Amino acid sequence: MLCEKCNKRVATIHLIKLINGEKSEVRLCESCAKEISDISLVGSLGSIDEISIPNILGGFFESIDKNKPNKIEVICKKCGLTYSQFKASGQLGCDECYQSFSSYLRPMFKRIQGDLEHIGKVPKRSGVKLVEKKKYVNLKKELQKAILEEEYERAAVLRDKIKDIENSRTEVGKDEKLDL
């Protein structure tokens, strides 16, 4: 695609401006982008070295930290990483850090991803088995919950659905178990 300003060079920069809910887009070559006075690439972005994960995530952490009333330093029990160190580096030290910093990470993940559970896409060929297994596991969990809440009619319906899945697996001749 050609630059929308000079129509001579290839547009390598795609700018999107969002002001008061109004979106405007422009595709420019590097030299035309530098000429526009209100778009100073180096001035607005800083040097390329400054664009890093900690800098990008810094705004998320600061807004989350403002919502947390306690200023007690959280430390990972396994690796000893502090939350302040994590904020500065943008890297967790170990798998326990997710648990240790969860009260700070969960709101950030929810803001970025829209939810805390990743649903994702499932491959068409090999994903059928995965979807079936997940459905089976979820039905078993719902059944346990219904039993604990003494909703026996709902539990009976769920039990029948589970049996249908188990029977359909044996009818097709699949000997694999669905249990995890």
Automatic annotation (TrEMBL):
InterPro entries: UVR_dom, UVR_dom_sf, YacH. GO terms for molecular function: cadmium ion binding; cobalt ion binding; copper ion binding; zinc ion binding. It comes from the Bacteria. Pfam families: UVR (PF02151). Residues 133-168 form the UVR domain. GO terms for biological process: stress response to cadmium ion; stress response to copper ion. This is UVR domain-containing protein. It comes from Clostridium paraputrificum.
